[in-house]
## 1
Amino acid sequence: MNDIIWIAGFFDGEGSIHLTTNGCIQVRIYNKNIDALKFIQSKFPAGRIYKYNSCYNIRFNGKKALTFLEAILPYLKVRKKEAELAVEYLKNDSRNIDIYRQMINKHKGDNL
């Protein structure tokens, strides 16, 4: 449990949630410390680590992002609303980008 709480805090500070052009949710965490990302990968093996310029990132796509977000969601502070919207989108099993945009617009004042 403590590891998940640590990962949630790390994601709050270093992570992001993207909607790709084909409607897929992608979760990314960037950091220069590959060991931190390998630690996250040891807890969530579905994540893939990539080198990007002088740093690394771990990515979770689609349903793999859902598993990751659901595990850390109770402990998020900064990105909680954004993660909730992504989880809702992924659970709807939809690739309709307009649905996600509508969800974002509905919560625009919620400091996403």
## 2
Amino acid sequence: MVEKGQPLQLFVSCINQGRHNVQSKLQRAVARGLVTRSTSCSVNDKNCAGVIHGHHEDYSKPFEVIWLCRFHHKERHRKKD
């Protein structure tokens, strides 16, 4: 028997798996020297804080990222929702 909400959970799980695969590809490319990780946030303002993250606007392009600090990365995701 399928429980209420299960199909949505499976759908969300597939989306998260796709994101994880893209993030893994980027990490491997950085480790191999194919992509250079920025040492500073692209926003570069007084609120910058935390480790630099690669933000994907389009998960179909795993090596096209915007380098953002943790603060601005979270802010970017809040604005998308």
## 3
Amino acid sequence: MLHLYIDLIISRDRIRKKVLHTKYKEGVMSDSKVVASKVKTYIKDKSGMNTSTTVFDALTKIVEREIDKAIVNAQANKRKTVMDRDFM
């Protein structure tokens, strides 16, 4: 899978793209399940710390695992809709 994380930086009324991290696996493109800018802002506001680009791969894997569990829970309850209670 190809992971490509792009952080948009607004600089003097222009937007430029900065490629943060690219990783190749199996030749298929995969999307991140987390919003990089939101995660970075949360970490910065909460702790004053910076965020490594490798954080987004790890968070995406965690989110995918939790989504997979929620899908199983919804299927076990014979539903075709994943609900908030499926994440508990």
## 4
Amino acid sequence: MRGFRVAPRLKKLSGHILQAAHRAAKAIVANFCQKSYVNRMSTMNISLPETLKSFVDQQVSGRGFGTSSEYVRELIRKDQDRQTLRRLLLDGAASAPTEAADDAYFDSLRDRVRSRPAS
């Protein structure tokens, strides 16, 4: 079976289209990277005793982190979540008592959700 021949002008045009698409894709990726949080990171150096450094290195390799920075960022995010939860719990404990959250309360919540129009 013979292959198709592509006219030289069409071949040149398709090459230009591919180049334009490639340039557009590169511009989109560059724009995303400029706006993403990665470019807004600051650098912080910390000193650790050898035992802690070894522990961090083990966590990085054993838990799938790419770098020790990723591991530390994850620890900080978890600490932020923990502090937020603690604040919410303390605010709830300091608030005035409300009605009991018994079976009737949850039944009324379910009824309210079921009666909402689908969006």
